[in-house]
Design brief:
Number of domains: 1
Strand content: 5-15%
CATH architecture: Alpha-Beta Barrel
CATH superfamily: Aldolase class I
CATH class: Alpha Beta
Radius of gyration: 17 Å
Bound molecules: 2-phosphoglycolic acid
Number of helices: 10
Strand order of the largest sheet: 1-2-3-4-5-6-7-8
Oligomer: single chain
């Protein structure tokens, strides 16, 4: 499977910057070995999807509600994202788990809604620095995987992103050995729980991925792509990361 380079634009930019980014990616995407996904803020999902229509760049949301409609002021439902042209949705990002106290049970309910709407979920897991220092990182991530992934996730092509909380937006990353060890652990955990289909589940690494470290990270076993925050806002940097995927 082609590696996936996913951009999480978070709460950044305006319509002009979103359009400029989309146009730069649209122009470059056909020449790339990597598959590309961009996840703009909700307001920009529809215009970015329209700007990318017919291009190989996929568009996703950064969250969705667990219900399809109803009295949930300020929330967005999975079918709305689909209707706006999204094919993917990031769920359980550590910023949502922290800022909105999202539990893994809620992440699982949202992931079920995403699957039911025909979206490919990108479910994020990852330990805090204190958990890493205490040697609890595998236990924490194992529990998040167990509690966040619903039935049908693996067979529907759901994607998992390992994002150590302390590496997000900090410029710090785990060592290559630590990333490889966690991805091996996640692969085993998923295959144990869900069977051999999980051998081909895409496992992304996220947290301070940039052009200078992308090639080394993307070459690691069981790293099937990257979830990129800050560097995804600069087309040249995001494309440099996409060009760093290992050659088949
Ligand atoms: P970062 O963010 O690349 O800015 O560290 C990654 C993420 O939060 O997905």
């Amino acid at each position: 499977m082609r590696p996936l380079i996913a951009g999480n634009w978070k709460m950044n930019g305006d319509w002009r910057s979103a359009r400029d980014l989309a146009e730069a990616l649209r122009a470059a995407a056909p020449g790339l070995d990597a598959a590309l996904l961009v996840c703009p803020p909700f307001l920009h999902v529809q215009p970015v999807a329209a700007a990318l229509l017919g291009s190989p760049v996929a568009v996703g949301g950064q969250d969705c509600h667990a219900r399809n409609s109803g009295a949930h002021t300020g929330d967005i439902a999975a079918p709305m994202l689909r209707d706006a042209g999204a094919t993917h949705v990031i769920l359980g990002h550590s910023e949502r788990r922290a800022d909105h106290a999202e539990s893994s049970a809620q992440v699982r309910a949202k992931t079920e809604a995403a699957l039911a709407a025909g979206l490919t979920p990108v479910v994020c897991v990852g330990e805090t620095e204190a958990e890493r220092l205490a040697g609890e990182h595998e236990a924490v991530v194992g529990r998040q995987l167990e509690e966040s992934l619903p039935l049908g996730f693996i067979t529907s092509g759901g994607i998992v992103a390992y994002e150590p909380v302390w590496a997000i937006g900090t410029g710090r990353t785990p060592t290559e050995d630590d990333i490889a060890a966690m991805h091996r652990f996640m692969r085993h955990a998923l295959v144990n729980s869900w069977g051999p289909t999980a051998q081909i589940t895409r496992l992304l690494y996220g947290g301070s991925v940039k052009p200078s470290n992308a090639a080394a990270i993307l070459a690691l076993p069981d790293v099937d792509g990257a979830l990129v925050g800050g560097a995804s806002l600069v087309a040249a940097d995001f494309l440099a990361i996409a060009r760093a995927v290992p050659q088949e």
